[in-house]
Amino acid sequence: MQITRQDILDYLRRHSQATVKELGEHLKLTSTGIRQHLTVLERDGLVDAREERGHVGRPALVYRLTSNGDALFPKKYDALANALIEESRRQLGADTVQQLMKSVAARFADPYMPRLEGRPTAERVVETVKVLQERGCLSDCSGEGEDFVIKQHTCPFPNVAARNSAVCALDVEFIRRLVGSDARLTASLLRGDPSCIFRVRPRESVAVVRS
Question: How confident is the model at residue 208 (pLDDT cuts 50, 70, 90)?
């Protein structure tokens, strides 16, 4: 990150918002120079601007960090998640942690269920991949015989999974709920495979086998 642009991001992080004039006074740069840097930051999706009407004159453009811009600043979510999982395992036991993961997966899945319920498995698999992509995971799907295969090429919790593989149960349960059928993890990034592979058995096939 270019130094002046980082200074702009730092200022916005501290003050939540700023005008071109305020940034220029802080960085001792002309308005033209500040706007050039802001244009690049807007292009990269790190800041956005909105008009804010004052008491007199034309509305001023006020700049703020986007969620992507805020994400550049260090967070300790991974450390917190690992500590919570490890302490839960110590106090409650591994089986209870597994059940907790499944409950969290259900909570994650609930907002998406209106998009999925009542649809055949093939459509749910395709929509599940869209959900995974919306959540930032590079994913795709294909058919293999009667089954479907979902490949997840990026892990949603890489720094947590590296220390606590229990979160894999969360991912499996999340996908199982979305597809509405049996889903099994047959390959894993954590084990060194090129992707996490979830094999989905259509519920229509399961019903035929049981009958």
Answer: very low
Helix axes 31-43, 20-27, angle to 10 degrees: 110
Helix axes 3-15, 31-43, angle to 10 degrees: 80
Which residue's structure tokens are 């093939």?
122
CB contact set of 122 (below 8 Å; sequence gap of 6+): 143, 148, 202
Query: Which one is the CATH code of 3-70: 3.40.190.10, 3.90.220.20, 3.10.580.10, 1.10.10.10?
Result: 1.10.10.10
| Separation of alpha carbons 122 and 147, rounded Å | 9
pLDDT, tens digit, 9 for 90 and up, residues 127-145: 999 999 998 889 999 998 8
pLDDT digits (tens, 9 = 90+) for 162-177: 898 888 999 999 999 9
Residue 148 Cα distances to 23, 24, 113, 123, 154, angstroms:
53, 56, 19, 11, 19
**pLDDT class of 56 with cuts at 50, 70, 90:** low
Strand, coil or helix: 17: coil
CATH hierarchy code of domain 77-210:
3.30.1380.20
